Amino acid sequence: MKNYNFDELVDRTNTNSLKYDGRQMFFGTDDLLPLWVADMDFKTPDFIVEALKDRLEHEVLGYTYRSDSYSDAIIQWLDKRHNWKVKKEWISFSPGVVAGLTLAIDTYSKPGDEIIVQPPVYFPFYDSIKGLGRKMVENPLKLVGGRYTFDLDDLKQKITANTKMLLLCNPQNPGGMVWTKDELTELATICLENKVLIVSDEIHSDLVFDGHKHIPLPTLSDEIANNCIVCMAGSKTFNIAGLTTSFVVIPNKKLFVRYERTLKVPHLHMGNIFGSIALETAYREGAGWVDQAVDYLQGNYRFLESYLADKLPKIKPMKPEATYLIWLDFSEYQLSDDELNAKLIDAGVGLNRGVQFGKQGSGFMRINIGCPRATLEQALGRIEQAFG
Question: Omega before 45 cis (within 30°)?
Fold first, then answer.
């Protein structure tokens, strides 16, 4: 098996990279290390790039459709990686996971309906709910033993006759939790009993660390499968987010038909040539690359954890079970969120503000460790100079 070099430094400036070329816009300076946007600084795998180059040898880039081999690649990947046996007729398209869950909100609810979120959580959830005129209901996660878990008693109290949907983040962003079978079953059972549809964002499902196992929500039972839709993609896993290609798995035929109708009205179902090729190639050839990438990310986390314990013990990282996004607790410094963010920018490091993920994120920052270790070490050195 080929060994991949995740230590290679890649210059991403002047490529219209949001992460790098957007620094001035978001931080007011270009002079910082950006460890914020949730893409990795590793090269997109060579087998994906070669497949795209091969397609460019045919110089007509007209309308295309997704072939049976595209669906088969998804089916085989989900079976081998997650023991989830998916049927082709369950698979639909989305330009991105956020687009998929937004389309789901539009499809399965109406303005004024209540939709539950579980903060601190991926902040585009809030934008999708509010942007479509739905009422957001917060069921905050609770911290138990340094790990987030569901507050099911609070959930039961929050559900009303007007509650139509719950947005689930599995694995969780920003905490990095891989929800257990028991956690998911209890949550899904409450939703099932109250006719609350679950839309599950499972984009980080391939980036799971040792000792943990991702459980796709529909695998819990047929009844639960019929009360959920799952949004997935290879974009985080293989660093191909710019190709705007995701997929949605909907086992319930009636729900599937309704989603497809919403998707096709604005002609979003077509996708693009290169996204389809990249996703199929990734799932056919990418198992070895993913395994090595996850090993490297785990090494990055161990490095960060050791560095903070030794030199910055007031900064407490939440131990991740998945993802390359680490939740850092700066609360011991007793700074306001604006002061904390400004201090990091002055130090030359750009992170995500914790309050973006909900008021429960006050005092936290999110750091992206999907980068060469040398970059991470440099960023931590700058933080140490500012806070040490």
Answer: no
Query: Taking a C-beta distance cutoff of 8 angstroms, is the pair 172, 121 a contact?
Result: yes
Instruction: Please list, residue by residue across 212-240, b when 16 or more beta carbons sit within 10 angstroms of its beta carbon and e when fewer do.
Output: bebbbbbbbeeebbbbbbbbbbbbbbbbb
Instruction: Please state which architecture CATH assigns to domain 18-44+287-387.
Output: Alpha-Beta Complex (3.90)
The pLDDT of residue 196: 98
Separation CA 358–CA 341 (nearest Å): 16
**Which amino acid is residue 142, in one-letter code?**
K
pTM: predicted TM-score of the whole model, two decimal places: 0.97
Record: fold of 51-285? Aspartate Aminotransferase; domain 2 (3.40.640)
Question: pLDDT digits over 254-276, tens only?
Answer: 999 999 999 999 999 999 999 99
Which tokens belong to 282?
A: 């990734």
Residue 95 carries which DSSP code? S
**Angstrom distance (rounded) from CA 223 to CA 252:** 10
Torsion on CA atoms 116, 122, 127, 130, rounded to nearest 10: 10
Q: Where in the chain is the domain with CATH 3.90.1150.10?
A: 18-44+287-387
Q: In what order do the strands lie in the sheet with 316-317?
A: 316-317, 325-329, 364-368, 352-353
Q: Is the dihedral of CA 232, 234, 239, 242 positive or negative?
A: negative
